[in-house]
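queue> pop job 88
queue> type: inverse folding (structure -> sequence)
queue> payload:
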C-alpha cells in the first residue's frame, strides 16, 4: 500500500536543501469530541493517531477535542476495529476529513532522506551520537548527497550540533581517522550579532582552528583571537579593554566566559590582584558579568550550588551575596543509591587462625553408625533389651571416633625446625653498632 504521508515527489534527487519544497497538503481523517476527557479516549485512539514531528495528535479548542488520525490506517469510521467502534460510539460528535499543511519541520529523518535519495539508494539510518556530534559512515553511493544528508540529520536530531563523516578506514597506530564536516550549527552567535569578541586559547592547535572558525562563519571584524596563558590574558587584554571602555563611557556590559570547569576557578584571584583601588572603582561603576564553570563534588543531602559559591568566594576572598547573579547546577554521571555495605573491601586478605582452620582439608571418619539397628521389636521387654544394645553400640562408636581423632592430631603435628642463626663475625657486629650510633630517631 502506498503511503499517503510522504513529501512531494519533486524533491527526489535534490542535492542543495530547499526546505520550502517539502510543503504539501494531506487529507487527514479526524474525530471530534465534546465534553469528553482525552484520558477517556486516548487508550482507544492511541494506535490510530497521526504521529509526525512537531504535531500533536490531540488538539483542544472551545471545549472540543479533535483527534487527528493516520490516513494510512483510517479513511472511514468503519476502518476502526469492531471493539473500538463500540467504545467510541456515543462519545464522538463528528467524523470527517480535513486538509492539513505538512512542511519540512513535520517530517522525520527517514521520511526526508527516503524522499530525497534516488530510488535504489539505501537510506543511511545508522549513526553514532557522541555528545552533540553525529558520526556517519556514508557509502560511495551516498557521497553525491552527503551535504544534504548531513543537513537533514542536523535539522531532525534535537541534540545535534555537528554532523561528520568518516572518510577512510582506520589503519594508523593511534586509531585516529580522517573525517569531514557535513553540517554544523552556528557556534559564534555573539560575534554574528555584532558583539565585540576576544577569544583566547593556550593550545596552538585549538588557536589555529579558532581563527579558522571565524573565517568559516564569515566574521570579518569586531573580533580578536589570542594564543596566551589565561591568567596573562585576563591581566592584560581583558583589563585594558574594560578600563578603556569605562574611560570612554561606552554603553553595554562585558561578559567573561571561563569555560574550563577543572581550572577556571583557580584564575579568579586575578580580579583582585591586578586592579588598584582607582581601577576597581572605575570597573565597578558597571561591573562585568563572569560566567564561571566549575566542578563540585557533593555528597547526599549537600547543596551543590552552595558548595560552588563557597569555592568561588574562597578564591576571591570576599562574599558574593550582593554580586551573585545566578547559579546553575548540572549533575554529571549516575546517581548511585545508598550502598548496603559501606565497609571497603581489603585488597590483600590476611589469613587468620580461624580461616586457616576452615580451609583445612576434612579428614574421613570411618564409623559403624550406619550399622546400628534402630528398629526395635514390639513389647516393653524387647524394647528395653534393644535400648541397652543400642547404648552399648554408641559407647563403642564413641571410642572409635576418639581414637580416630587422636590419630589425626598426631599426623597433622610436625616438629618445628630449629632456625639456623648464622654466626656473626666481630667485624659485622662493630659495623652495625657504628651505623645505629649515627642514626637520629
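queue> result:
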Amino acid at each position: 500500500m502506498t503511503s499517503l504521508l510522504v513529501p512531494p515527489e519533486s524533491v527526489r534527487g535534490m542535492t542543495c536543501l530547499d526546505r520550502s519544497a517539502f510543503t504539501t497538503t494531506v487529507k487527514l481523517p479526524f474525530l471530534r469530541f465534546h465534553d469528553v476527557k482525552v484520558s477517556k479516549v486516548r487508550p482507544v485512539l492511541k494506535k490510530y493517531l497521526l504521529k509526525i514531528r512537531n504535531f500533536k495528535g490531540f488538539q483542544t479548542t472551545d471545549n472540543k477535542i479533535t483527534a487527528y488520525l493516520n490516513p494510512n490506517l483510517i479513511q472511514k469510521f468503519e476502518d476502526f476495529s469492531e471493539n473500538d467502534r463500540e467504545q467510541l460510539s456515543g462519545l464522538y460528535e463528528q467524523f470527517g476529513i480535513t486538509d492539513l499543511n505538512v512542511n519540512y519541520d513535520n517530517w522525520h529523518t527517514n521520511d526526508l532522506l527516503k524522499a530525497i535519495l534516488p530510488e535504489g539508494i539505501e537510506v543511511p539510518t545508522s549513526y553514532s551520537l557522541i555528545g552533540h556530534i553525529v558520526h556517519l559512515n556514508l557509502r560511495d553511493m551516498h557521497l553525491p548527497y552527503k551535504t544534504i544528508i548531513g543537513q537533514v540529520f542536523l535539522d531532525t536530531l534535537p541534540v545535534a550540533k555537528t554532523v561528520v563523516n568518516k572518510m577512510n578506514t582506520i589503519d594508523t597506530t593511534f586509531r585516529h581517522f580522517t573525517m569531514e564536516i557535513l553540517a554544523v550549527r552556528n557556534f559564534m552567535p555573539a560575534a554574528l550579532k555584532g558583539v565585540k569578541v576576544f577569544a583566547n586559547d593556550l593550545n596552538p592547535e585549538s588557536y589555529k582552528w579558532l581563527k579558522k572558525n571565524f573565517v568559516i562563519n564569515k566574521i570579518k571584524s569586531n573580533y580578536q583571537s589570542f594564543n596566551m596563558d589565561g591568567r596573562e590574558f585576563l591581566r592584560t587584554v581583558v583589563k585594558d579593554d574594560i578600563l578603556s571602555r569605562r574611560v570612554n563611557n561606552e554603553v553595554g556590559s562585558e561578559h567573561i566566559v571561563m569555560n574550563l570547569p577543572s581550572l577556571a576557578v583557580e584564575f579568579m584571584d586575578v580580579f583582585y590582584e591586578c586592579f588598584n583601588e582607582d581601577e576597581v572603582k572605575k570597573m565597578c561603576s558597571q561591573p562585568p558579568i563572569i560566567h564561571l564553570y566549575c566542578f563540585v563534588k557533593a555528597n547526599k543531602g549537600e547543596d551543590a550550588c552552595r558548595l560552588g559559591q563557597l569555592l568561588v568566594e574562597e578564591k576571591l576572598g570576599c562574599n558574593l551575596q550582593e554580586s551573585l547573579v545566578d547559579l546553575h547546577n548540572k549533575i554529571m554521571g549516575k546517581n548511585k543509591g545508598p550502598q548496603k555495605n559501606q565497609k571497603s573491601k581489603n585488597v590483600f586478605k590476611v589469613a587468620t587462625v580461624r580461616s586457616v582452620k576452615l580451609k583445612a582439608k576434612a579428614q574421613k571418619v570411618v564409623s559403624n553408625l550406619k550399622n546400628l539397628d534402630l528398629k526395635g521389636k514390639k513389647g516393653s521387654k524387647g524394647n528395653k533389651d534393644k535400648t541397652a544394645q543400642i547404648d552399648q553400640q554408641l559407647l563403642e562408636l564413641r571410642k572409635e571416633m576418639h581414637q580416630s581423632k587422636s590419630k589425626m592430631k598426631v599426623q597433622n603435628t610436625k616438629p618445628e625446625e630449629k632456625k639456623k642463626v648464622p654466626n656473626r663475625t666481630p667485624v659485622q657486629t662493630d659495623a652495625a653498632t657504628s651505623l645505629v650510633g649515627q642514626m637520629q630517631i
